[in-house]
Write a sequence for this structure.
């Protein structure tokens, strides 16, 4: 029997104390329980955050949306003001997991979701730099249909599995954390760490940090953003490729603001800056969109089984932008 | 002489209500919806200990030893079973009745033949304790090179299975001269049976009596295997399988985990529960093995088939021969003057393959029905017209006439309902925005298999009826159609009939597999019900205490629970039974004689498949038939394939319950959609191990993947196929679905995929 202690703190301070003494944070449990069953997570002390006060609010003001870390995925997806203000958030959530999981999983936990790399999830593979730093990567050269093409390193090619995180990266969200040193705000762009030489470090969190919420600024491009997810199975599958795209045009039809983030193809939710730069200030003609979209995978390093995504991602960008412009017209 | 044996001739065949053939809902449906249906693993058994399996992390080699000290010292642990400390069992004869090749059977074996093979079991007071202790086992191996699949250079060409060789005419010569000739290779991957109810059991010993609560498609066959393993008499083993939460062929045989649980229970003197985890369901038993087939078709320029030559290979495990007969339908569907088919099995380091819905017919039809579509394209013919051009008016394989074959009607009805005549034959010609639209069709078939069955029908003092048999209800509706059969035969409302199934102490039944159960068990129940009715009438006429004794009649009718004399005098069943001092009148009947068997074949008939009759055993060739029409939408740029609609027409003979038959057909179609587009065991060839051993990564279709499905019944009663006229239902629906989708994909895109599943990335790679 895997023995562990369980505490249900009533304050962030108490949770922080538990964390400082080696505890593992628990939200909805859909990630931690899964990994514990696989023997990947072996928490000694579980700190259940779900009764902490004040982290279960959704507020939409004229300038931003604020989302508490303990909000369930299903509740955020169904929130009327959020749906109106930032439709891509709800779209990404509804494309995630299953209704049962969305009813349990918290937004904070979802941000900290671990990779679905099968070599990471099976402890009988000795080589996994994410699990055992320095042990190698069993995935390279293996079954790699779902592995990353962007942001990989010689040490890890595990794909970031998130949907919401992709939308948040497109929306320039800010992650709010609490630690005994006080609250902190962190750009979403700094939050996820590409593996590089240290795949075991996945998030830019200090050891005492607890994610308490999100802020999403209501820029025009963000408010019109959408999320599109492609996969073989029509539901309940991780993305073959996904996109969160936001766009606003000037009065004379040029691209004023553009945000493109990609999921399913990179080690972290991937902001396609080169594509954005190629279109910003330009007229989004079909030729310009196609040329810009082609830049998305310029840096890609495919594996044996995922070369088909080299064409898939530009096609997804092109289709999504074209439809957004068509809908705006 | 008891009334049961009295040679009376009473009662008219026209008694009763039209219950059989009514579209009733499943009698067990509400209990399953409410969660009150208690499955085998839900049984409350006192003093349960829990077993968890530990598995090999190599695919080939030898387990040198297991360090068990830490596990044995863990809290709650009662025993750790390993190859080192577990004596072998006696080997059991096979499901066909063949004697074992070796004297012993080791469900925990130090010789490792596939990744994930069970090598130890930990038994503890709780499931969690057992699971945690199992993690503490340390295995030491001597690793050997593994053969990872059909494409492994070390796999070789395998072993020919002569039994599967079939030929007539001179295919080689005919192909040589054929004006049109195609050589095509088709492949299917490892596919797994993934029922929602886990495989597992509760094993309990009381002295030398072994009771097993275990989901079972074949209680008598599994009870025989356990008896042989443990050196018991058949009647010392009792299997109770109240319901089955999905089996699809995978719950018909006793498996290693069953032997391990029974061993642990005997060793501990306590009942032991063992359920496979989802991951272990991929390694504790096999599904459909990977297959490869090369078809050579010769035809006239007009598309008339001249010859087919087929070579097939399926993978099997290192220690057993499992056959997936790829020639099952190849020579059956069309008028074919020359045919030659051979098949090899290729041992690889994988778990022993099993049976998955329509083993043989399914991949066989994927090859043939894809190839026919390719031929149609080659000769510029409509695929439906080409099938009609080559329509087989009799079975060219056996030379016998069909019993019934409504395939032409199925093709016609499906085509009309689908609107096939509006199809533009040119590939890539139909579009809807970004979607390329493809219309494809294929035919399918499944044989009528027959084994004898046995049933007891009792008429009780309260006027109700009890039907009992050890046959299994896989969720297909056996409870319901057997109640309908008895109600019909006895002229009673179905609410008066109670059906007891799934207990090996009940009258015998053969395997619920090969889509034979409905046909044979309705026959047995019908026969037993008529005999019980005769016995009741005989009792009412002959017993001095019977109220109808003085009626002077020499026959009675049974109508609506009343025994009625010709002059109108009537008496209800309870009054007759009470007056005559009887608690019940019952009749046990079997259909051995109808299946040309003698009473001494009884045990063999029910515990092996050796008496199962081939579809051509008799004067006719007997099969069910179907035709599928599908529409796919393909977004090439976004690499997405979705099904838009399915129309399928079926000839399953007489339907005992059209609603349940339609559910079976649709279930087969849905499983076929998954097979066509999603299902695939992904093997890491460096390690000869499966990488997607969970339902997040081994993709089965969701509701969102399934379009509107229209099913059409074109069958008529087939008097040769079964006592009451039905033919195969359960496995028919899946046959032909995958090629219909592959053909639609070709029509949509102009690209031909010959390997399942038909994934978008394969389409993209096809250029």
């Amino acid at each position: 029997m895997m023995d562990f202690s369980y505490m249900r703190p009533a304050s962030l301070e108490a949770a922080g104390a538990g964390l400082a003494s080696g505890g593992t944070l628990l939200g909805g449990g859909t990630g931690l329980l899964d990994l514990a069953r696989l023997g990947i997570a072996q928490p000694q002390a579980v700190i259940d955050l779900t009764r902490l006060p004040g982290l279960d609010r959704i507020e939409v003001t004229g300038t931003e949306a604020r989302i508490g870390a303990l909000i369930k995925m299903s509740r955020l997806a169904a929130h009327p003001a959020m749906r109106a203000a930032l439709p891509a958030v709800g779209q990404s959530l509804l494309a995630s997991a299953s209704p049962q999981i969305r009813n349990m999983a918290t937004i904070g936990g979802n941000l900290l979701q671990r990779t679905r790399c099968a070599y990471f999830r099976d402890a009988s593979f000795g080589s996994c730099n994410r699990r055992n730093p320095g042990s190698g990567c069993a995935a390279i050269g293996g079954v790699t249909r779902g592995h990353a093409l962007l942001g990989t390193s010689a040490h890890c090619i595990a794909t970031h599995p998130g949907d919401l995180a992709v939308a948040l990266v497109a929306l320039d969200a800010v992650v709010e954390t609490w630690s005994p040193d006080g609250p902190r705000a962190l750009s979403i762009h700094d939050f996820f760490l590409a593996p590089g030489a240290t795949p075991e470090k996945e998030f830019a969190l200090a050891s005492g940090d607890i994610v308490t919420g999100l802020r999403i600024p209501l820029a025009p491009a963000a408010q019109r953003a959408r999320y599109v997810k492609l996969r073989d199975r029509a539901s309940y599958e991780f993305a073959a490729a996904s996109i969160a795209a936001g766009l606003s045009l000037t009065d004379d039809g040029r691209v004023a603001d553009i945000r493109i983030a990609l999921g399913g193809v990179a080690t972290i939710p991937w902001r396609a800056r080169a594509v954005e730069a190629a279109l910003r200030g330009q007229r989004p003609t079909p030729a310009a969109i196609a040329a810009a979209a082609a830049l998305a995978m310029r840096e890609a390093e495919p594996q044996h089984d995922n070369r088909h995504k080299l064409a898939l991602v530009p096609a997804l960008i092109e289709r999504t932008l074209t439809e957004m412009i068509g809908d705006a017209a | 002489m008891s009334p049961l044996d009295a040679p009376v001739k009473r009662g008219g065949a026209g008694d009763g209500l039209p219950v059989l053939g009514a579209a009733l809902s499943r009698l067990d449906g509400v209990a399953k919806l409410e969660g009150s249906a208690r499955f085998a693993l839900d049984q409350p058994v006192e003093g349960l200990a829990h077993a968890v399996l530990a598995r090999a992390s190599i695919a080939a080699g030898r387990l040198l030893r297991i360090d068990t000290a830490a596990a044995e010292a863990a809290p709650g642990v009662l025993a750790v079973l390993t190859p080192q400390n577990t004596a072998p069992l006696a080997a059991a004869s096979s499901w066909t009745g063949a004697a074992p090749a070796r004297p012993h059977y080791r469900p925990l074996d130090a010789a490792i033949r596939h990744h994930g093979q069970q090598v130890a079991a930990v038994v503890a007071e709780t499931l969690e304790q057992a699971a945690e202790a199992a993690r503490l086992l340390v295995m030491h191996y001597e690793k050997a090179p593994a053969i990872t699949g059909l494409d492994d250079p070390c796999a070789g060409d395998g072993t020919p299975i002569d039994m599967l060789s079939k030929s007539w005419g001179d295919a080689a010569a005919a192909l040589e001269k054929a004006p049109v000739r195609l050589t095509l290779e088709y492949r299917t991957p490892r596919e797994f049976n993934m029922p929602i109810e886990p495989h597992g059991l509760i094993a309990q010993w009381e002295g030398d009596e072994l009771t097993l609560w275990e989901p079972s498609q074949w209680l008598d066959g599994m009870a025989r295997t356990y008896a042989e393993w443990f050196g018991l008499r058949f009647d010392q083993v009792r299997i109770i399988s109240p319901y089955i939460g999905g089996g699809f062929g995978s719950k018909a045989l006793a498996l290693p985990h069953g032997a391990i649980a029974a061993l642990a229970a005997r060793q501990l003197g306590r009942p032991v529960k063992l359920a496979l985890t989802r991951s272990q369901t991929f390694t504790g038993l096999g599904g459909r093995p990977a297959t490869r087939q090369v078809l050579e078709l010769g035809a006239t320029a007009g598309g008339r088939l001249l010859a087919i030559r087929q070579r097939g290979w399926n993978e099997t495990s290192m220690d057993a021969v499992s056959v997936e007969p790829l020639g099952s339908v190849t020579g059956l569907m069309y008028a074919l003057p020359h045919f030659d088919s051979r098949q090899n099995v290729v041992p690889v380091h994988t778990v022993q393959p099993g049976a998955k819905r329509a083993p043989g017919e399914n991949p066989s039809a994927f090859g043939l029905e894809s190839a026919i579509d390719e031929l149609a394209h080659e000769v510029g013919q409509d695929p439906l017209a080409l099938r009609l051009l080559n329509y087989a008016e009799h079975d060219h394989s056996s030379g016998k006439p069909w019993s019934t074959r409504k395939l032409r009607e199925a093709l016609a009805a499906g085509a009309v309902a689908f609107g096939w005549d509006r199809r533009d034959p040119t590939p890539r010609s139909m579009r809807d925005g970004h979607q390329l639209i493809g219309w494809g069709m294929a035919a399918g078939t499944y044989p009528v298999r027959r084994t004898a069955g046995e049933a007891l029908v009792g008429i009780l003092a309260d006027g109700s009826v009890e039907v009992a048999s050890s046959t299994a209800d896989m969720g297909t509706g056996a409870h319901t159609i057997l109640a309908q059969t008895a109600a019909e035969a006895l002229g009673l409302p179905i609410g008066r009939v109670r059906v007891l199934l799934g207990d090996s102490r009940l009258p015998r039944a053969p395997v619920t597999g090969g889509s034979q159960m409905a046909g044979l068990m309705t026959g047995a129940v019908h026969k037993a019900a008529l005999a019980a009715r005769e016995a009741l009438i005989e009792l009412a006429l002959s017993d001095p205490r019977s109220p109808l004794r003085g009626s002077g009649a020499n026959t009675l009718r049974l109508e609506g629970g009343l025994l009625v004399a010709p002059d109108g005098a009537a008496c209800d069943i309870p009054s007759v039974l009470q007056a005559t001092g009887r608690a019940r009148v019952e009749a046990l009947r079997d259909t051995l004689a109808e299946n040309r068997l003698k009473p001494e074949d009884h045990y063999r008939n029910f515990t092996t498949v050796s008496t199962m009759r081939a579809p051509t055993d008799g004067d006719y060739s007997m099969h069910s038939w179907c035709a599928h029409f599908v529409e796919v939408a393909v977004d090439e740029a976004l690499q997405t394939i979705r099904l838009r609609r399915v129309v399928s027409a079926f000839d399953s003979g007489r339907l005992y319950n059209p609603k349940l038959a339609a559910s079976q057909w649709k279930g087969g179609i849905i499983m076929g959609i998954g097979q066509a587009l999603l299902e695939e065991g992904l093997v890491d060839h460096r390690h000869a191990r499966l990488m997607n051993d969970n339902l997040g990564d081994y993709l089965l279709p969701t509701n969102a993947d399934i379009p509107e499905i229209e099913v059409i019944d074109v069958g008529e009663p087939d008097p040769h196929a079964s006592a009451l006229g039905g033919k195969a239902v359960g496995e028919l629906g899946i046959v032909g679905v995958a090629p219909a989708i592959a053909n639609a994909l070709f029509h949509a895109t102009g690209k031909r995929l010959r390997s399942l599943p038909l994934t978008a990335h394969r389409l993209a790679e096809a250029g």
About this structure: Chain A has two domains: 5-49, 56-329. The two ends of chain A are 61 Å apart (CA to CA). Residues 192 and 203 of chain A are 5 Å apart (CA to CA).
